[in-house]
Amino acid sequence: MPRLCHLFLVLSLSACEAEKEEAPKAEDKCPKVGMDTLPGDWIRVEGSKADKTWRFRFLEEGGKPTLWLTNGGFAKKRLVGEKRTNDWKFTEVATDPAAVAAGTKELVRFYVEPMKKTCSLRISQGTVVQVDGKEKETIAPGFQDYLPVPEGAEFSYQPCDGTLFLNKAATDKAEADKELAAGGAVFQSSLGDALTVGAWSDVAADGDAACKYDMDLYFDDARSQDKEKKVRGAVPAGEPVNGFRPWTVTDWYAPWSGNHHFQMYRYRTCADGARTLIGVSCLEAILQ
Asked: Are 185 and 169 in contact (CB under 8 A)?
């Protein structure tokens, strides 16, 4: 297990004080690690390096212990768990139950064991699949270590519930519907300083028309930046047209070729001042 100060410096996310020769008791040093509390964000570490493509947020969702997991790429999964005697058992929530029942779709499984002495989580990971109507579990040998994400580091975690569109489909609802009918949003585009990216939502489902609507942008799982490498603030949504609200960005800075991930966190702010998340639209695209 790496020393925490070393890990934070490798991440370049935050600094920490030098470790003292006489460490505090585990119960005092690791208040976030235990069978009764696992809140917050965690990132996988290997040796002295952290891997942001493996991370999760632990939370209560609908009264159930839940992980929002990113496991090795950009895709987000929702795992629901149960607390056992010495660990937590989490299983991916199926988005295609029919495929799971037919045995053609594997689900992710995590066993999470709190490690007080190292302020970490020790995780066994694997898959489960249906074989002849029964669950078959396969767990990879060994363990993976996770530490709390350093304060100040901001990644995206929440699984997506909507689709983003590029170029014409981002500004033309009919074109967006056409792409979906043909099998899904077009995921290839030229790269550039000002890409057009957008989503569409049902105005009635969004909420009170008197509220304000805006969005936060994420690119490759981190807050989107402009040309000056400054994080972009909230971007206002467009005015409704024929019962649909356009969430359009015409100047998304994405001048890099390759595989990239666009995310749009859509919010509603009403008279009480509370900013409420109403959806997360996403697209993994190839820019060239």
From this structure: yes
